[in-house]
Specification:
With 490 residues, the protein is α/β, with parallel strands linked by helices. The protein has 17 helices and 15 strands. Helices cover 48% and strands 16% of the residues. The strands form five sheets. A four-stranded parallel β-sheet has the order 4-3-9-10, sandwiched between helices. Strands 5-6-7-8 form a four-stranded antiparallel β-sheet. The chain has a three-stranded mixed β-sheet with strand order 12-11-13. The relative contact order is 0.10. It binds one RNA strand of 74 nucleotides through strand 3, helix 1, helix 5, helix 7 and helix 10.
RNA sequence: GGCCCCGUCGCCAAGUGGUAAGGCAGAGGUCUGCAACACCUUUAUCAGCAGUUCGAAUCUGCUCGGGGCCUCCA
């Protein structure tokens, strides 16, 4: 089944056919580096990390470009507040962004250009737009003339007359049409600036993405991504700029991810429900955050809440517990034993396990449906648990299937950036973190386990149960097994 | 005002014409000294109404409810 993607431009799912067979050029709008990234940035970047990974898994040679916008009004304002240069500020937050993305386990894009490294290309684009009559200079500023680009608003599907009628657009005196937007801004005192044919100035927002994408991916490329909120004006303006210069289609497929709400409310600074990635990672494992984000489809809104994150933690734990169990079994048994038939009773779970990759692909091929893909992986986990519950010593063909199922789960998990940790280590760390709230130490628990073991040996079950109940009150669950007693956090 | 999206089991969440994935929680069962874990079984006709169709959660219209964009924003 071919990959199908939802294209904002057409409003439909379309079969994905790259311009050059086997190769994909993909550009994702990164961040304006003036502050720490929040959970919304985390989602956008994780979503396109998965697009990147899945295309690579599908054997495409992907060139992934994600930029830093390091020249902008907000950067200048923030730098002035702090009494440092724009460059110092943006470098600080580029570093912070890189740390956050690394913590979230993102693959590094092929190119991570900075806007300020493309000033010459930006100026060249603006000059071409002026030469083609698509832009005009006005007192040191240069504006894009939207009236000269007939398909303006084709991405956001808006109506020029109605937008002009809206009271929220104030006509700028330097603009011919209030909808015209700045390509180049004349420098004000104290602002970072570069020499240009129109005097000292700096790029407007939008033009840097046109410059960087065409420099690194060409005039036309396959995928352009970003958050929904970028559709207008940012992406609309990128189309106007790039197509205004080249006269060719700018991007084949436009992909936009949905928002993150917090406790059912739009996340915003004024509501005070604004979470930075670093705040969140103090409370949640990065893989839990990633798992949470991927359990919803990328275009749906997603609600960030403690309850939802907690459920994701439990769900991810289920995977690691199954993998840890499987690791133990596989380590104990020799997988190259003779082939033997699989018990009839296990045909169904075996089938589910064997078909995991096929089902995973069909989910992902349907517009990167990670939620469904994870559903199929849960099915595989249940199959593994079922097999292990019924067969203490799997052998022959069954063992081969389990071994392959394990490898598939790890390999497909990697496409989603999941299950990359050693299961036993991950579970141990998770238990440690949970322990912090209980007031108990590992040694305390071990001592109580020994005490209870003695009580059970003496058939003093009342005392044994009392110990278990006391631990349970503190969130510690005891798990008895033939190999002894272990514990985990509730 | 314009444009767009959403409303699926107690909660989260897939499914966009062929008869409702998955997770959490719940109930019953197997296992257990009793539990826990795991496994098995079990729990929805898809906001409402009216249409189109052999057939709709999926298409159309209307109603109700929620949200987004139109200004910086992932």
């Amino acid at each position: 089944m071919p990959l199908r993607v939802y294209n904002t431009l057409s409003g439909k799912k379309e079969e994905f056919k790259p311009l050059v067979p086997g190769k994909v050029g993909m550009y994702v709008c990164g961040v304006t580096v003036y502050d720490y990234c929040h959970i919304g940035h985390a989602r956008a970047n994780i979503v396109f990390d998965i697009v990147y990974r899945y295309l690579q898994y599908s054997n495409y040679d992907v060139t992934y470009v994600r930029n830093y916008t390091d020249v902008d009004d907000k950067i200048i304002a923030r730098a002035n507040e702090r009494g440092i240069s724009s460059q110092e500020l943006s470098e600080e937050f580029i570093r912070a962004f890189d740390e956050d993305m690394a913590a979230l386990g993102l693959r590094t894009p092929t190119h991570e250009p900075k806007a300020t490294a493309y000033i010459a290309e930006i100026i060249a684009l603006v000059e071409q737009l002026i030469a083609k009559g698509m832009a005009y200079e006005s007192e040191g500023d240069v504006y894009y003339s939207v009236d000269n680009f007939p398909s303006y608003l084709k991405l956001s599907k808006r109506n020029m007359e109605e937008m002009l009628a809206g009271a929220r657009i104030s006509p700028g005196e330097l603009k011919r049409n209030p909808m015209d937007f700045a390509l180049w801004k004349a420098a004000k005192p104290g602002e970072p600036s570069w020499e240009s044919p129109w005097g000292a100035g700096r790029p407007g927002w939008h033009i840097e993405c046109s410059a960087m994408s065409s420099s690194l991916l060409g005039e036309t490329f396959d995928i352009h991504g970003g958050g929904r909120d970028l559709i207008f004006p940012h992406h609309e303006n990128e189309i106007a700029q790039s197509e205004g210069v080249s006269g060719k289609p700018f991007v084949k497929y436009w992909l936009h991810n949905g928002f993150v709400n917090v406790n059912q409310e739009k996340m915003s600074k004024s509501l005070g429900n604004f979470f930075t990635i670093r705040d969140i990672l103090k409370r949640y494992d990065p893989e839990v955050v990633r798992f949470f984000i991927l359990t919803a489809h990328y275009r749906s809104p997603i609600d960030f809440s403690d309850q939802n994150l907690e459920e994701s933690r439990i769900g991810l734990t289920r995977f690691y517990e199954a993998l840890a169990h499987l690791d133990k079994v596989l380590a104990r048994l020799d997988t190259v034993t003779e082939q033997g038939p699989v018990a009839e009773a296990l045909a169904e779970p075996v089938e589910r396990l064997v078909r995991l990759e096929e089902r995973f692909r069909s989910a992902m091929d349907d517009d990167f449906n990670t939620a469904q893909a994870i559903g199929h992986m849960f099915d595989a986990v249940r199959a593994i648990n079922r097999i292990l519950a019924e067969e203490n010593e799997p052998h022959g063909q069954l063992l081969t299937i389990l071994s392959k199922g394990h490898d598939d789960l790890i390999r497909l998990g990697e496409v989603l950036g999941l299950f990359g940790s050693d299961p036993a280590a991950w579970l141990a760390r998770s238990a440690q973190e949970g322990l912090a709230d209980s007031g108990l130490s590992e040694a305390d628990i071990e001592a109580l386990i020994v005490e209870r073991r003695e009580a059970r040996a003496n058939r003093d079950f009342a005392r044994a149960d009392r110990i278990r109940d006391e631990l349970a009150d503190k969130g510690v669950l005891l798990l008895d097994s033939p190999e002894g007693t272990t514990w985990k956090m509730k």
